[in-house]
Amino acid sequence: MQKIDLICIGKLNAAYYAAGVAEYQKRLSSFCEFRIIELAEESISEKNASQAVIDKALEKEAKAILSNVRKGSALVALCVEGKLISSEDLAQAIEQRALSGAGDMTFVIGSSHGLAPIIKQSAAMKISLGRITLPHQLARLVLTEQIYRAFAINNHIKYHK
């Protein structure tokens, strides 16, 4: 069974996001082994932190992210400079990875400061959920739904119209 991980910096603190994510996580269990790994966001105590301070925090987060990626898993970074993809494109990427025999994929949502360059460089794919800015908790819900939608497309389930 294909293993899909979602590594997120930060926790869900709104019940309505958590409920939505839990629903799609439950639905995904029919198609793949799906797990969410929440990692702590590095705290930056300075209100107007310098880029050097932010970069140092991102580097610490990157180490934690990389240590949680399954061996052989394709890293997919969500970032503003990522490619805009459709639901069908995501479904195709997941299916191609599964058919390659090395089906594991790890999606990464960074902190409010984004992702360290090493994560983006290590990524097999960089994708964007759109040109709008989403709060990270909402991005997690949207991405989880899109992963479910991708499996629905690949399995010819009427969910995707």
Q: Could you describe the 3D structure shown?
A:
The longest helix is centred in the C-terminal third of the chain and has 19 residues, at 136-154. This protein has helices at residues 15-28, 51-67, 87-99, 117-122, 136-154, and strands spanning 3-9, 33-39, 74-84, 105-109, 125-128. It starts with a strand and ends in a 7-residue tail after the last helix. α3 packs across α5. The chain has one domain (3-154): Alpha/beta knot. α3 links the parallel β3 and β4 (105-109). The chain has a 5-stranded parallel β-sheet with strand order 2-1-4-3-5. It has 161 residues and is α/β, with parallel strands linked by helices. It is built from 5 helices and 5 strands, in the order βαβαβαβαβα.
Number of structural domains? 1
CATH superfamily: SPOUT methyltransferase, trefoil knot domain
Top CATH class: Alpha Beta
Which stretches are low in confidence, meaning pLDDT under 50 for 5 or more residues running? none
Q: In percent terms, what proportion of residues is strand?
A: 15-25%
C-alpha termini separation: 26 Å
What overall geometry do the principal axes of the alpha carbons give? globular
Helix-strand string: EHEHEHEHEH
Give the second-level CATH assignment, the architecture.
3-Layer(aba) Sandwich
Strand order of the largest sheet: 2-1-4-3-5
CATH topology: Alpha/beta knot
Number of H- or I-type helical stretches: 5
Helix content: 40-55%
* Rg, alpha carbons: 16 Å
Question: Which structural class should the secondary elements be placed in?
Answer: alpha/beta
**Average residue-wise pLDDT:** 94
Instruction: Please give the number of β-strands.
Output: 5
How is the main sheet built?
Answer: 5 strands, parallel
